[in-house]
Model the fold of this input.
Amino acid sequence: MISVKKGIRPEEVRIQGQHVLFVEGKDRDAVDPKVLDELFDSSIRIEPLGPSFSVKSVAEALFIYHPTYYFLIDRDHHENDFINRCWRNFPDNATHNLLVWRRREIENYFLDPTYLFQSKFCQVSLLDLERKVLQFSTDRLFLDVANYVVTSIREELKRNWIKKFSSLDEFSSKDAALQKLKSANEFDQHRTSVDQKVSPEEVERRFHDFLSRMTGGLDQLTMGTGEWLDLIQGKKVLSQLINSGCFKVLTTDNTSLNGREKLNEVV
Done:
């Protein structure tokens, strides 16, 4: 028997259109959509949606209306508790159907030398590959640690530290309103909090905490110790690694690929 279904959403007319995963990336040639397209094999639509804040904003705006829209972003400043809760409860309205990579970026999953060594494009030994990963990660270790300090302080200072007023009775005149505003204890508390967070002592403490977390407390990066493979800026390290001579990708006319095309082919 023929029947008519009404109220169909526009995206439902596409193949697998009812399930869409939005990821970071400025276009379809970005690593995230390339890798996920390959993994999911058309069982779900993968759509790039720009940087992390764009994906999060769209997630908050659309998940109510599109429960089969899902969102995946880089780890950035998010801590383990929040990330684990996202995966454990997914899909979850409380987090807007949002998932966060457990490693810093999708590229970090490719920094495992044993895994990368399996690529048919690899031209060096496993030991050489390990040395290159260590070299490129060590080169940017202190930069990334310093940026983690900046990000952690910046995110904490964004928190909603004062609530808006609501009582009309306390704002009956200009003078009353100004007095109420100036006497709010939250301003003094926030000023103290900011002073503490940006003090040289606190900045140094955070720097050493992140450095110890990355290195596992050692003086240098070592395979299997610390969280550096998860937390280093994988996008930069992987690009250096793929284009360093460790990998060779030839086109059909026997010319060598370079840059993003080469990176995408390897991943």
Summary: The longest strand covers residues 69-73. DSSP finds twelve helices and four strands in the chain. Residues 182 and 188 are 10 Å apart (CA to CA).
